[in-house]
């Protein structure tokens, strides 16, 4: 009972804080000089990280297993992952902190908001793990997959932002002169915009590379776990198939980065497509509730 009350309090405190944080972030995007507001938002994100960490630990203690057995728990872990990535961006970005951290803060409020919604009310109560999930591979496989999803989603959103900035500039100049200028000239017209696009491209590549690594580890560990549980490393059920599609899309993205002619906009388009594929893999497939991961449906678990 005490743990349930503590979990309820931590869930709503973290959502309240992150809601205030995202509001402050959007304000600082409009008014760059409000340094005090920005510092307050970062303190809020630190507080959110501690609340979500406490929420995971609390659920771990009273459930008796690592809190990644259903969609509710995996979304909490996803929020925690977004918060971690946000703090990494905070300590590494020298410029444009407001624009870049707003992406990770928005991701955190989206997932945390879904966690506190009534849609997952039936999952709030922790239950005994089904036999297939009673394995030491649960923590390894699911944590790697979810953290990989978080990093890939953040990196993809940076690519989406890059495309919005780039094509908005192209359309603006095209409408004025009716002449499609080359990309380099478009960027040189506004040095700040050029710097921002380069920064988005740089960090999108770095974060997606990290997410791709975690996704690969997650898929490999899942294959080993599947062999132990089902007697086969790969079964091509919907969850595994979409995980492979996700891996392939971002493998293509990383390949485009090796070709200078495909960097920038072209690779960003691939990453943007990957953003939709991740949500299909992580959330969409679970709505079907079919295949060997049927215990990972909307009403039970997600990985």
UniProtKB/TrEMBL annotation:
<dbReference type="GO" id="GO:0005886">
    <property type="term" value="C:plasma membrane"/>
</dbReference>
<comment type="similarity">
    <text>Belongs to the CcmF/CycK/Ccl1/NrfE/CcsA family.</text>
</comment>
<protein>
    <recommendedName>
        <fullName>Cytochrome c biogenesis protein CcsA</fullName>
    </recommendedName>
</protein>
<keyword id="KW-1133">Transmembrane helix</keyword>
<feature type="transmembrane region" description="Helical">
    <location>
        <begin position="268"/>
        <end position="292"/>
    </location>
</feature>
<dbReference type="GO" id="GO:0017004">
    <property type="term" value="P:cytochrome complex assembly"/>
</dbReference>
<dbReference type="InterPro" id="IPR002541">
    <property type="entry name" value="Cyt_c_assembly"/>
</dbReference>
<keyword id="KW-0793">Thylakoid</keyword>
<dbReference type="InterPro" id="IPR045062">
    <property type="entry name" value="Cyt_c_biogenesis_CcsA/CcmC"/>
</dbReference>
<keyword id="KW-0201">Cytochrome c-type biogenesis</keyword>
<keyword id="KW-0934">Plastid</keyword>
<dbReference type="GO" id="GO:0009535">
    <property type="term" value="C:chloroplast thylakoid membrane"/>
</dbReference>
<comment type="subunit">
    <text>May interact with Ccs1.</text>
</comment>
<feature type="domain" description="Cytochrome c assembly protein">
    <location>
        <begin position="68"/>
        <end position="293"/>
    </location>
</feature>
<dbReference type="InterPro" id="IPR017562">
    <property type="entry name" value="Cyt_c_biogenesis_CcsA"/>
</dbReference>
<feature type="transmembrane region" description="Helical">
    <location>
        <begin position="141"/>
        <end position="167"/>
    </location>
</feature>
<dbReference type="Pfam" id="PF01578">
    <property type="entry name" value="Cytochrom_C_asm"/>
</dbReference>
<feature type="transmembrane region" description="Helical">
    <location>
        <begin position="12"/>
        <end position="31"/>
    </location>
</feature>
<feature type="transmembrane region" description="Helical">
    <location>
        <begin position="203"/>
        <end position="226"/>
    </location>
</feature>
<feature type="transmembrane region" description="Helical">
    <location>
        <begin position="100"/>
        <end position="121"/>
    </location>
</feature>
<comment type="function">
    <text>Required during biogenesis of c-type cytochromes (cytochrome c6 and cytochrome f) at the step of heme attachment.</text>
</comment>
<keyword id="KW-0812">Transmembrane</keyword>
<keyword id="KW-0150">Chloroplast</keyword>
<feature type="transmembrane region" description="Helical">
    <location>
        <begin position="74"/>
        <end position="93"/>
    </location>
</feature>
<feature type="transmembrane region" description="Helical">
    <location>
        <begin position="43"/>
        <end position="62"/>
    </location>
</feature>
<feature type="transmembrane region" description="Helical">
    <location>
        <begin position="241"/>
        <end position="256"/>
    </location>
</feature>
<dbReference type="GO" id="GO:0020037">
    <property type="term" value="F:heme binding"/>
</dbReference>
<keyword id="KW-0472">Membrane</keyword>
